[in-house]
Amino acid sequence: MKKFAFFLSLMVVLFFLACSDNDHDETTGKPGEGPGVINLAVTSRVGTHVGDDLTAYVKSLDLLLFRENTNGIYLLRESVSFTKAQLEALAGGTTEVGAGFTEARNVNFDNLPIGNYIIVGVGNMRDSVGGALENAALSAINVGNTMQEIVASVTEGSTSPRIFFGMTDRIVLGSAMPVAPSLTLYRKVAMFALTLQNVPAAVDRIDVEVQNTYGAFNMTGNFLSDRVISVTQSNRYEFTEDQSTLPLALVTLPTVTGEQSAFTLLFYLDNGQVITIPLQNTYVLKANTITKLTATIDADQSGGVWNVRLTLSISADVEWNVDQEPNIII
């Protein structure tokens, strides 16, 4: 009788432990063993080139794995961080990428319980001279926190203007075979569009220098080691005698928090002379925003001194990123 009572008690304890473990896994997303495998392909949108390396733009990457609980809420199950060296060591993916996307890198998540998942990626950018910027704030990234609160803490933080960010669609994971979703990381970018009127025929080239941004990109989307953008790097702009109106557009990261961005135009003439003209006003380039200006060049001044008069200034908040190449009409 005592043996039967002990056996019954043991069964009850094991039953409650099993229920507790299952409920714990469903509500907190903490790790547990399972048959599921996710083979994730990671890429990022950087410009118009094909197959650039991810680490040319991203110096480190955090991947956050969320699992849906019985209430339909996605909770953080685990996170993994990669340094630049670790990213370079990842195997290249077989997923074909389009123009402007980096070569895919593969990351595997093994031993997962079946269920629904979403993976969020936060990539920390290199700065304009290749140095290490402060990483994105990940203070709310604790196992068991909801995806909503974690995403809000990252995308609304002071570091958000300079990160790559993205999330997968819902991943339905069973036990039969691995699933192979893709994760695309996007960055918040700004655009400065300047239309110059009365451009003298003697102008062979124009460079645009911008200050106090988190970095800049030339007209093909390449991340620059400085903040001088030459419009001759794009075949959009061919200077001819009848081109009196010239649209210039450059893609940058937003203006550094608390700063103003100043712009300087450098006109290279066919006689070798270089004329440098700073714009009178400074601007705050906001994420996903186009600042559009129109200016008239007055070259008929004594001493060869030119004047650039701003005649129109528009700032428009738009749903836009670098995959929409200039010129954008607003």
UniProtKB/TrEMBL annotation:
| Pfam families cross-referenced by the UniProt entry | Mfa2 (PF08842)
> What superkingdom heads the lineage?
Bacteria
| Protein's cellular compartments | Cell outer membrane
Signal peptide interval: 1-18
**Gene Ontology cellular component?**
cell outer membrane
Q: Coiled-coil intervals in this record?
A: none
- Entry keyword set: Cell outer membrane, Lipoprotein, Membrane, Palmitate, Signal
Q: What is its main location?
A: membrane
Q: Which family does it belong to?
A: Belongs to the bacteroidetes fimbrillin superfamily. FimB/Mfa2 family.
Give the protein's recorded name: Major fimbrial subunit protein N-terminal domain-containing protein
Q: Which organism is it from?
A: Odoribacter laneus YIT 12061
